[in-house]
Design brief:
The structure is a homodimer.
Chain A (H helix, E strand, L loop, with lengths): L17 E2 L21 H8 L2 E7 L4 E3 L7 E15 L5 E8 L3 E2 L12 E14 H9 L2 H27 L2 H18 L6 E3 L4 H8 L3 H13 L3 E4 L2 E4 L2 H9 L4
Antiparallel strand pairs in A: 1-2, 2-7, 3-7, 4-5, 4-6, 4-7, 8-10, 9-10
Helix pairs in contact in A: 2-3, 4-7, 5-6
Chain A binds a DNA duplex (30 and 30 nucleotides) through helix 6.
Amino acid sequence: MSVPIHPDVPASSCSGTLEPLKVACASCNLRELCLPVGLNAADLQRLDGLVEKRRSVPRGDHLFRNGDRFEALYAVRTGFFKTCVGSEDGRDQVTGFQMAGELLGLDGISSDQHHCDAVALEDSSVCVIQYRDLEELSREFTVLQHQFHKIMSREIVRDHGVMLLLGNMRAEERLAAFLLNLTQRLQARGFSSSSLVLRMTREEIGSYLGLKLETVSRTFSKFQEDGVLDVKQRQITVLDPQALQRLVSNAAG
Amino acid sequence: MSVPIHPDVPASSCSGTLEPLKVACASCNLRELCLPVGLNAADLQRLDGLVEKRRSVPRGDHLFRNGDRFEALYAVRTGFFKTCVGSEDGRDQVTGFQMAGELLGLDGISSDQHHCDAVALEDSSVCVIQYRDLEELSREFTVLQHQFHKIMSREIVRDHGVMLLLGNMRAEERLAAFLLNLTQRLQARGFSSSSLVLRMTREEIGSYLGLKLETVSRTFSKFQEDGVLDVKQRQITVLDPQALQRLVSNAAG
DNA sequence: CGTGCGTTTGATTCTTCTCAACGTCCGTGG
DNA sequence: CCACGGACGTTGAGAAGAATCAAACGCACG
């Protein structure tokens, strides 16, 4: 998404679809952001049994689709995804953007099939975690059980935040909140908090924020006029983060 | 919410705040809607140890507040709740309405404190489930573990549906979707699917749907003019459920 | 019987959507 | 190497939807 400060994240090492290669969680530099948060070295070794393989997903490909049988969760290792749910008439709503260390597929547990599409927005790779295995291991492994529950709960809290955004905020406030959220997550991954390259189109941003693509474009232009952002297509530089923060804090005020 | 067809649900039997009384899940007629879904009689006995007490919550009272330490989940036994998250400036967003058999408090797991307010919209009672106990029991009790994961996942899927509603639908479509969802849930609990009494104000409906209360009121009036609903204050009769269904299916079309 | 909250309805304003045209970037093939 | 095409992005003008402001009504409760 920007200039990596943690250069040891493999940028793109795979080209096939399935890799039986084991990748040790203990040596993965995403361990502080991913499922293993809070696990010590001994715990991490036990966790490694969970991740049986990696899968690489080229840009534009689906990791899974609405209706697919649910079997596994996916931890993003490299790359960037969107998830979207479709309405009966064909239009859809982007429900989230996922980056390294974030978990995909939690929606599938509810009825053994996925309820959204997950699409790679750039060439990506994920760790495949068989859900049965996770259930089994978390039964005898308290820390993992709790961590998994936390991740699901965090997703619920995040969704509630999006509802607040969609229900109460105006276009400028929504885009400001979106950009602040992105930069914070990038920063947690060692990237610059002021410079980012958007991996999604204006339409995808609009779908996520409940806006039309023209409104997203106009709002970017306004932020540029106001000196809050520098916008060169998808290359965004945040010039005045506090202005964005003010917009979010004063939302619906 | 309407005429009960399952009259053995205790209507309102408690007045104190805490009741050490045990209520057997096995004999609770909500067991098909609540945490015990899919458990057999033997399983149910083991589950009973979980629910240590009931708590009654008078109309208007908080079950928990944003920031409260998280310790327990709550299964609605009787009554009706809303949950809402607050923005930094004081305005808030209703994130859901919960009725008998539904679980409250899942948001708290993520960081050991609640991230929303839960308020009773009528005199209510809940079963208190200590989260530590649930964690422990679900470790040795596969069916419960899976059922709990399903409930969390279902909440995530529900939230995504609300995002779709807030992001893509117009006022009429939102209210139609809201009413259909309510009547379906009431029907599952043995109430009439065409007649209901709203427990929440126009403002609370509006907050949930991302609309102002005047817009909610106007939309109710329009549905009445169109012969889709009969609206007498909070007493709603659905005259043409298919018209509501059409609005939802054609959403954003 | 009055008071107050919740609701309805109307007039107006504001934001965002819609429709349309044009511009830019980038990969492809001549 | 350049021309072309297509996807993506920007900008403008007008329309539609919902918000806002304001007033009056009804019902429940004390």
